[in-house]
Amino acid sequence: MDIFKEKPYLLTLLVSLVLARFIGVPLVEWQDNQKIELQLESKRLAKAERAVANQQTIAPLLEPLREKVNQNRDRLYPYQSENAFKLEQQKQLESLIQNYGLKVSGIGWLITKQLDEFDLTLYQLQVRFMGDGVRFPNLMAELESRPKWVEVADFNFAFRRQGKTKIGEASGQMTLNFYMQSELSK
What is the DSSP string of the chain? Predict the structure, then answer.
């Protein structure tokens, strides 16, 4: 303690350092936290303002879209039990493929998805088939011209044994989407 009597400015320096550490540093940290929170709130406010502006732009377009969806509801499959629907569609598809002179090499149903915002159920069917490559476009045209909507979500094919006068044999795989109305919207 004698050092403080000899050099009194050290005591003042020590007190100011203690005050800075226990009062000044927490105050600066609090200000930094407040600044970060304010920046986050500003970003949230800007996003909310953009959402409101977009809503005003999108709202007039929503009603015509709903009308188009309702007009096309007759192209959707009516509600029926899942197993009966899958069996019927699988048989129809296998028959259609065979009518075009193609052979089914594999068929399987993928995951079923509920599309709650549209009151629909999405069934996906994956089919592998092979045959004369000239017949593939006719099959695709037939699928897309059906009265009930069948969406070709994915279609891959490969050709073999091509020649100058023939397109060759082909093997293909496609994923078809079937949309069924939910039980509530019968």
Answer: -HHHHH-HHHHHHHHHHHHIIIIIHHHHHHHHHHHHHHHHHHHHHHHHHHHHHHHHHHHHHHHHHHHHHHHGGGGSBPP--HHHHHHHHHHHHHHHHHHTT-EEEEEEE---EEEGGGTEEEEEEEEEEEEEGGGHHHHHHHHHTSSS-EEEEEEEEEEES--SS---EEEEEEEEEEEEE-GGG-
CB atoms within 10 A of CB 123: 19
Residues 147-171 pLDDT 10s: 888 888 888 888 887 777 777 788 8
Dihedral sign for Cα 167, 168, 173, 176, please: positive
Global pTM value: 0.59
